[in-house]
Write a structure and sequence with these properties.
Low-confidence stretches: none
Protein name: ABC transporter permease
Mean pLDDT: 88
Shape: globular
Order of helices and strands: HHHHHHHHHHHH
Structural class: mainly alpha
Keywords: Membrane, Transmembrane, Transmembrane helix
Helix content: over 70%
Number of helices: 12
Largest sheet: none
Pfam families: ABC2_membrane_6
Number of strands: 0
Amino acid sequence: MGERGALLEGLRAYRLIAAMWVRSSMTYRTSFAVTVLGNLMVTGLDFVAILLMFSQVDTLGGWSLPEIALLYGLSATAFGIADLVLGSMDVLGGRIRDGSFDTLLVRPAPVLAQVGADHFALRRLGRITQGALVLGWALVSAGIDWTPAKVLLVPVMLISGAVIFSAVFVAGAAFQILAQDAAEVQNAFTYGGTTLLQYPPTVFGKDLVRGVTFMLPLAFVNWVPAAYVLGRPYPIALPGWAAFASPLVAAVCCALAGLAWRAGLRSYRSTGS
């Protein structure tokens, strides 16, 4: 089977497994609706914390509330999409410990599709909804001098950001195979990464900003392109085209995550249980 055939087979397997979990979650519709609402409210507490900060200050790191809301909305929405699609990757460690990961290896479906769709949870739509609401308000309130390039950059940021976060989820899952769990390490880069990106880069040291720009390029989810949209200088020197490099960064992250996943599978040793 060629690369294209394998991709189509993986998408088909993912769709079937995810649909099974959706049907399961929709059995009790009232419970599902309450869970989605609860998820929306809980994830919204992060933005409430930002609002509380701005009840005491006018700017944070030189950025106004609507500007930080733009960062927050981009990060939360992009991460929410990745979390919806691949957020169940953190259960991989448990499967390795109890030996059930072995059953995924012998099924006639790509392992990555099986792990990604495992325990697919529509309740995560709450995070996407909440982030999108904040983003919509920020786009109207931030006083952006709109141009066609800036208008195009908003959906590009969301799609590229979701792909970058998805690549981090996959790379983290590969590390779990090598480390025989370590879900907390993965969460530090996924959930921790989205929290970091909700604040302006000017509040962090330049060494951290360089690391998030060049080593683990989460800055291309929102910091770099959003600085262009808002007409703000980035804390470290970058060429002008860097604001439009998010799709390229996302593609590189996917390629590296794919290599890491394959290496993880090759190194896997069954628990024997």
